[in-house]
Design brief:
By secondary structure, this protein is mostly beta strands. The chain is 0% helix and 50% strand.
């Protein structure tokens, strides 16, 4: 199993980024996927999750409205669109494979992470 994140970088406050996570080595359509992040000196924070078919999406309390999770099963890729970014969003962002079709916050594989830095 491989999960490869991309799309991170430096952006100014108020800006937008779209992260991608390309998956391989398993039947992508069969599993929910999630995005999490870890800021320097802080614990891992759950951002969002999406069901195996993309019909259900779930967000952390401070994420909904600014972040959108989506997936393209034909491309085995999950995305995280982020808008109105703030300095507090600076973190390493990880995608993770859930262990079931619906999100259950149990992950068996993780990507290597992509750095997002929000700074003027």
């Amino acid at each position: 199993v491989q999960l490869v994140e991309s799309g991170g970088g430096m952006v100014q406050p108020g800006g937008s980024l779209r992260l991608s996570c390309a998956a391989s080595g398993f039947i992508f359509n069969d599993y929910a996927m999630a995005w999490l992040r870890q800021a320097p000196g802080k614990s891992l924070e759950w951002i969002a999750a999406i069901t195996y078919d993309g019909k259900g999406t779930y967000y952390g309390e401070q994420m909904e409205g600014r972040f959108t999770i989506s997936r393209d099963n034909a491309k085995s890729t999950v995305y995280l669109q982020m808008h109105s970014l703030k300095s507090d969003d600076t973190a390493v962002y990880y995608c993770a494979k859930e262990t079931s079709m619906g999100p259950n916050k149990l992950y068996d594989f993780w990507g290597q992470g992509t750095q997002v830095t929000v700074s003027s």
